[in-house]
Design brief:
The complex is a heterodimer of chains A (about 260) and B (about 240). Helix content of chain A is about 40%, strand content about 25%. With about 260 residues, chain A is an alpha/beta fold. Chain A has two domains: about 140 residues, P-loop containing nucleotide triphosphate hydrolases (Rossmann fold), CATH 3.40.50.300; about 70 residues, no CATH class. The model of chain A has no long low-confidence stretch (mean pLDDT about 90). Chain B has one domain. The longest helix of chain B is centred in the middle third of the chain and has 41 residues. Classes of the chains: A alpha/beta (about 260), B mainly alpha (about 240). Chain A: It comes from Hymenobacter terrestris. Chain A: One of its GO terms (molecular function) is ATP binding.
């Protein structure tokens, strides 16, 4: 479980995060939802340690991460896997080498055979058992995301962070990536945090959803509650999607017994 | 400027704390030696051979006094090559080739979040990406400068012989006149300093790239410009201090 308490972050006096407190639960897909420029990515970067918050604290399973000793932060970081928006694969390495890289760096005690077996297992888990020898430039966007997931889970991560895993993907591939992340979260009982503004993902895998608006947390709930949330900013955000609007109208009509021609 | 210099010093410090394991560092350094050194042999060879040839021909053209022996041409080619042309021109050429490659490579890694990926894994990205590049440059620049010295002198010999400006025997006589071994040491010290400047400045510019493809290009250009200026200043300082 990751607990965030009163996080604040400003850039050149411009506040981006205004005292956000929330909890990311273990074994669940925790979604950070919000429009562009609401502070989702900044919050995620503070949580994974790429950015230092101005105020507040972050704890990973009871261990304080922010403002702690470098060694403690390193230990926690080694339990973190992250899928970046652009996948961030190392373009000078093959797919298999990309997946092997964290094992090579973080677990020197592993033998070459053990590493190879783990790479094979991870690539098979994401459905890319035949792509190991390909270069990142030779595979599609969806495959890159899968390799990113395989690389993230290779060292048995406890916390998985995904920065807009569906960006640039077609709806079907998006759905498959969402399902894969959800399966992995349940299978390994890890704490998964996903940044998204894709309503399909929200409805599909939103076990726990946090809605951010202008640097503030406005709503906290799950996928079953979100369509009935009474926060105007959230309603505006959700129903800006015509698909969701249509689905809601059909749902309302079904329940009221009125069917329009 | 003071702020940038302070940032540069902090960058250098960050590279040296929490270093990666020796085996990883060694493998990465060898890879960089190939990229920086082996892949630059061709351009260094071409540039240095022609510089030696042109130096020989132009000295011969200017040396019209019959009282000065022709072997002076060989002597002057050697002195100019060892003291200045081989270390400085080679380093300027390498600032263009290696410096832009380092800045462009690191800049691209930065904007495509590959540097962030390393950081999230708990790897010191400065140590993993930059230290091997600097060590690779420090190992390879002196070797390339030695190659440039040899090829410049050979280039001068061939040009002198082919154009009839000086006979081979006279040229070799000039090359062997009043040789000072310390000059070789001085040239190698210069090459090590230039190697550090080119690789560290280029890495600094690339590592802190922000934005997109346009900024990567700007970082590469700035890296080359700053490296060349740093080489020229260091060249003067070293000459004033060590000669």
């Amino acid at each position: 479980m990751i607990e965030i308490h009163n996080i604040e972050k400003s850039f050149d006096g411009n506040p981006i995060l205004k005292g956000i407190s929330c909890t990311f639960e273990t074994g669940k897909c925790n979604l950070l939802l919000g429009g562009s420029g609401t502070g989702k990515s900044v919050l995620l970067q503070c949580v994974v340690g790429l950015m230092q918050p101005d105020l507040g604290s972050i704890t990973f399973d009871g261990t304080v991460f922010s403002n702690n000793k470098v060694q403690v932060r390193q230990e926690i970081r080694r339990k973190i896997g992250m899928l970046f928006q652009g996948s961030a694969l190392f373009d000078s390495m093959t797919v298999a080498k990309n997946v092997e890289f964290p094992l090579q760096m973080l677990t020197p005690e592993m033998s070459r055979e053990e590493r190879r077996d783990r790479v094979e297992f991870c690539l098979k888990r994401v459905g890319l058992e035949n792509a190991g020898e390909k270069m990142p430039s030779e595979i599609s966007g969806g495959m890159k995301k899968r390799v990113g997931i395989a690389r993230a889970i290779a060292p048995n991560c406890t916390y998985l962070f995904c920065d807009e895993p569906n960006s640039g993907l077609d709806p079907l591939t998006s759905l498959k990536i969402d399902e894969l992340i959800q399966e992995i979260t349940y299978e390994y009982n890890i704490t998964t945090v996903i940044i998204t503004h894709d309503m399909n993902s929200v409805i599909e895998i939103g076990d726990h959803i946090i809605f951010l608006y202008k640097g503030l947390k406005l709503w906290d709930g799950n996928k079953d509650e979100i369509l009935n949330a009474q926060v105007p900013e959230l309603k505006e955000f959700i129903f800006s999607s015509s698909l969701v609007r249509a689905a809601k109208r059909i749902d309302d009509e079904t329940h009221s017994g009125v069917v329009n021609p | 400027m003071v702020k940038s210099f302070g940032q540069f010093l902090l960058f250098m410090q960050s590279m040296l704390v929490r270093k990666e394991r020796f085996a990883v560092l060694w493998k990465r350094t060898i890879d960089e030696c190939v990229t920086i050194g082996v892949n630059s042999i061709f351009i260094v060879a071409i540039v240095s051979a022609f510089i030696g040839a042109v130096t020989c021909v132009q000295i011969a053209y200017n040396l019209v006094n019959p009282l000065i022996p022709k072997s002076t041409i060989g002597y002057m080619v050697r002195e100019m090559t060892i003291l200045e042309l081989a270390p400085t021109i080679t380093s300027i050429v390498l600032a263009g080739k290696v410096g832009s490659s380092i800045a462009g490579g690191l800049g691209t890694m930065r904007i495509t979040e590959q540097v962030s990926a390393l950081e999230v894994m708990g790897i010191n990205s400065a140590s993993y990406l930059v230290l091997p590049r600097i060590l690779g440059a420090i190992f390879m620049f002196p070797l390339l400068v030695i190659l440039a010295m040899a090829l410049s002198i050979v280039g001068g010999y061939l040009a002198g012989s082919l154009t009839g400006s000086i006979s081979g025997q006279e040229y070799i006589e000039g090359i062997r006149t009043d040789f000072i071994p310390y000059n070789i040491f001085f040239a190698l010290v210069k090459s090590i300093v230039f190697a550090f400047l080119v690789s560290a400045i280029s890495a600094f510019k690339g590592y802190y790239t922000e934005g997109g493809a346009l900024e990567v290009g700007t970082a590469s250009t700035t890296a080359v410009n700053n490296s060349i200026i740093a080489i020229l200043i260091a060249d003067f300082v070293l000459a004033a201090v060590l000669l």
